[in-house]
DNA sequence: CTCCCGATAT
DNA sequence: ATATCAGGAG
């Protein structure tokens, strides 16, 4: 099974630079992983919905009790929305999220036999699930490289590194998809997010000890 | 574009 | 006080 290397053309200088940077990230964060705790696709779906504008650490504080009380779509679909609100309140946006969780679980029961669907179109139709959440579930729970997850960290780093010049998530995903080989689609966000949390932070980036400082156009910020 | 919104760091 | 956190919907 020869790994298909160059598509047809030689990569541009820009793409070659990006691919080189990705190799560095891969080497630097070999153990990058999804920071949300889950034991099945449904739990990852719920955790990712809760992770909107909230740290993964905070989500991981509320999900054990949530999953204990409502372990399946069937159980969560029948949950009083006030009960869900109470369990997830500390993650913020709790009224929207509680309503979304109940609607999402209800749809899973009614249209998907209580299982998490494995297509982007079906996932996005669930309450509170957008393209980012859908790609997280497909990539991490099912190992399907449906698309590249574009979150706040990927948006920030892709711009700082000069890979893209837009904050539009759909455009970023489209552009990155053309630059990055599909075998890296699932891990790339993990590498970028690891680096975004540890070094290339939103508020106070630690450029002085960043291993990408040489080639980063934002060097010094 | 605005709104949803609590917890934490600076 | 303000910015930010693995966003999504109207």
From TrEMBL:
State the free-text cofactor note. Answer: Binds 1 [4Fe-4S] cluster.
A GO MF label: metal ion binding
* InterPro entries assigned: DNA_glycosylase, Endonuclease3_FeS-loop_motif, Endouclease-III_FeS-bd_BS, HhH-GPD_domain, HhH_base_excis_C, Nth
Recite the UniProt keywords alphabetically.
4Fe-4S, DNA damage, DNA repair, DNA-binding, Endonuclease, Glycosidase, Hydrolase, Iron, Iron-sulfur, Lyase, Metal-binding, Nuclease
Q: Which PANTHER family match?
A: A/G-SPECIFIC ADENINE GLYCOSYLASE/ENDONUCLEASE III (PTHR10359), ENDONUCLEASE III (PTHR10359:SF18)
Family designation: Belongs to the Nth/MutY family.
Q: What is this protein called?
A: Endonuclease III
- Source organism per entry reads Bdellovibrio bacteriovorus (strain ATCC 15356 / DSM 50701 / NCIMB 9529 / HD100)
Q: Which gene encodes it?
A: nth
